[in-house]
Write a structure and sequence with these properties.
Elements: H1 2-8, H2 15-32, H3 44-57, H4 64-77, H5 90-99, E1 105-108, H6 114-120, E2 129-132, H7 133-136, H8 143-153, E3 161-164, H9 167-176, E4 180-183
Parallel strand pairs: 1-2, 3-4
Amino acid sequence: IYAAEAQAHGVQVQPEALSQSFQAAYRAQSRRFPNYGRAEGLSSRQWWVDVVKETFRLTGVHEDTVLTLIAENLYRDYCSARNWELLPEASETLSWCHQHGLRMGVVSNFDNRLESILVQCNLRHHFHFVLTSEAVGVAKPDPKIFKAALRLGGVLPEQAAHIGDDYSKDYRAAREVGMHSFLL
């Protein structure tokens, strides 16, 4: 997606190089400004624009005007359902859970775009709440984000289950606050 956006602006970059550069830029930005730079006064938009620009700089692209345009376009595109893919049967599974009376919420190390993305993916209506690390000010595996989710859900830890795809940030962290936990 990054390579296609760059190509639309006359910049040729190999997707593999961008993938490696993105990992490096994301890690460096996360270390320098954790949780989208909230504590330092950054907006998540600026945080992501900086990550995208640095991703391209690491591949040898340095024209700031083009980098800004690419970064802004990518940020905008990732605000919509356009660049997200649902897991097979996700909608059906969530509908089943909702129909069977399960109160569900989203707890994510994501920024403030998540709620809108869930709406556009036709998933938001399944959830009682959406809680992002940007909103809470801490990210998983910090117990504070799980405790905030439990308060929003109105349940005790032993009455809740957390499903996630990261062993330490999701599975282990939820278990450490007393929740049931499942690794996807």
